[in-house]
Every structure is written in structure tokens, then in C-alpha cells.
Hints:
Elements: E1 4-12, E2 16-18, H1 25-31, H2 42-48, E3 51-55, H3 56-63, E4 74-78, E5 99-102, H4 106-115, E6 120-124, H5 126-134, E7 140-146, E8 154-155, E9 166-173, E10 179-185
Parallel strand pairs: 1-6, 1-7, 3-4, 3-6, 4-5
Antiparallel strand pairs: 2-8, 7-10, 9-10
Amino acid sequence: MRAKGSVYIATSLDGFIAKEDGGLDWLDAASETVREGEDCGYAEFFNSIDVLVMGRKTYEKVLSFGAWPYGDKRVVVMSQRPIDFQDRDEDSDLVPACVTRSSENPTTLVARLTAEGAKHLYVDGGQTIQRFLAADLIDEMTITVIPILLGKGIPLFSSCGREIPLTHLSTQSYDWGFVQSRYAVGSLEGEIE
């Protein structure tokens, strides 16, 4: 059985994950409204995964945040081009040694990670999510809608080339306006935990 693929992401009400230039200032502003100590289930989700798979653009955006936010969680950056992971000194806030690059296609990467013992993958980044959806490698999505209309930007979903049925699992609304929904990709006949 292959590793479960999950998405955990925020979008604007009109479906964008970032501004056209990749800017996330709107998301930072929305985060300021969240009650202290509330993470909308992110820590529990993050603790359930074995490997975080992200695209190169997402990786480069994460680097702009400063200190590496994922601790020693294994991270695979999908990129056809080589990546200079900078200084991997233990005392550095830069990229830790648990971060690697893969030029594999999603199917090959998931097969390899599964063979290596991974059971749950977190897939992040717009293009990467779209590629994994197109390859039928996403089993569940948690999408938090932020109450803002960006008008234009980088969409979470662009053309997948086909319809993808979803099964609603749950929805939670928060006092500060966020609405978070979980979906199984396909029908509930699959193995969703």
C-alpha cells in the first residue's frame, strides 16, 4: 500500500494561495487575527506525517521566512535543477541535512518513499499539489479559506485536465472568519484514516 498523500493549505476565498508575485502578506495579516495558542490543527497534522514534499518555489519562499520552520522532519524538494542547500552546519538556522532534492516524477517519488517506510506524505506548493492530484496521489485535502478576495494570484487549482470528485469529511468555522474543510479525494470507499 502506497503512502497516504495529504494537502494542508490556506487559500483566499477566490482560490489563490499567493499573490501573483508569490506574496503572502495577506496571509500574514490574517494570521494576526487568530486567537493565541490556536493553530487550526496544523501541529497535529504535521506530527502525523513522515515526509513533507514541496516544490522548488515553495522551498525558496520558505527560505525567505528566516529560520527553518520544519525542524528535523524529512523534506523532499521537487526540482529538475540542482539546489545548493547552503551550509548544513548543526548550529545554523539554514537548511538541515534532512532536506533533499528529487527530480523524480510524483509516481516514482511516492513509490520510493513508500518503499523506504513512509506512510504519510504532506504535499505542499501549488504546482506540486496539482501534479500529485493529476497522478492520483492525493488522498485527503484540508483547505482553510481566509476571508479575503485577492482578485488575482497563484491558484491552488488550475487545469487538472479532468474532473476529480471529492467527498466532504468535515468543516469547521472559526470566530475570526477562517473556514476549514477536509475532503477525501474520490469516494469514501478508499482507505482514509
